[in-house]
Amino acid sequence: MTLRHLQGSGMTSQRTRDRMTKRLIEQGITDNRVLNVIQKTPRHIFVDEALASRAYEDTALPIGYNQTISQPYIVARMTELLLENKESLGKVLEIGTGCGYQTAILAQLVDEVYSVERILPLQKKAIAHTELLKLKNIRYSYNDGGWGWEDIAPFDGILVAAAPNEIPEALLQQLAIGGVMIIPVGEQGSEQFLHRVTRTENTFQIEALDSVIFVPFLAGKE
Fold first, then answer.
1. H/E element holding 126?
2. Distance from C-alpha of 184 to C-alpha of 165, rounded to nearest angstrom
């Protein structure tokens, strides 16, 4: 991939990214850290070339294997919620690497990203994409996301990019005291809600937030 393609042109240009960022502000995203990273990150390199001209639309796009890249607003919203009231985050676990776009956003905002993906060809694409951006603080695991990454736990933050019917117990237990998990919850075909889980010394505080639509949280590996 050439530097020119990385920078983008026309419908993938910096000007188009700037318009997307302005739209995110209009939609209520206020964290300048998140807005700045999204503004400079070339989303078009994370989708197939045939879809590159649509990369900065506020819509989810297919990335193969019945998976999607989340719409920019959802990426911004989940990232903002994860970082809310925190100057910085150390170790963050991402469940569902997908094409690597959310991974790339996180890697520019936290110390370390540990990303788990159950579909090997997608993981390989994600690694290639994030290497293009020279992001060095990401580690990848090919595994069932429901198990988390126990060897690395506890995590200061966990971000989940697929919707289980209920929050996996293993992920709850891998959250550090004071840590935050952002996760969509709900059955396919019924209403799903984005949840924020905060671990305290003695319990988990769980808030249901926005109505969302995510792919299902599946077990096993492909």
1. helix 120-132
2. 9
Q: Domain extents for the chain?
A: 61-212
Annotation: CATH topology of 61-212? Rossmann fold (3.40.50)
Tens digits of residue pLDDT in 17-62? 899 999 999 999 999 999 999 999 999 999 988 888 898 898 999 9
Write out the E strands in 118-161.
138-142, 155-160
**The two structure tokens encoding residue 201:** 């010394």
Establish whether 190 is a catalytic residue. no
β-strand partners of 165: none
Q: What is the pLDDT of residues 156-167, one digit of tens each?
A: 999 999 999 999
Tell me which of 70, 88, 141, 190 is the catalytic residue: 70
Give the H/E segment covering residue 127: helix 120-132
Neighbours of 201 (CB within 10 A): 6
Look up the pTM and report it: 0.92
- What tokens were used for 137? 């603080």
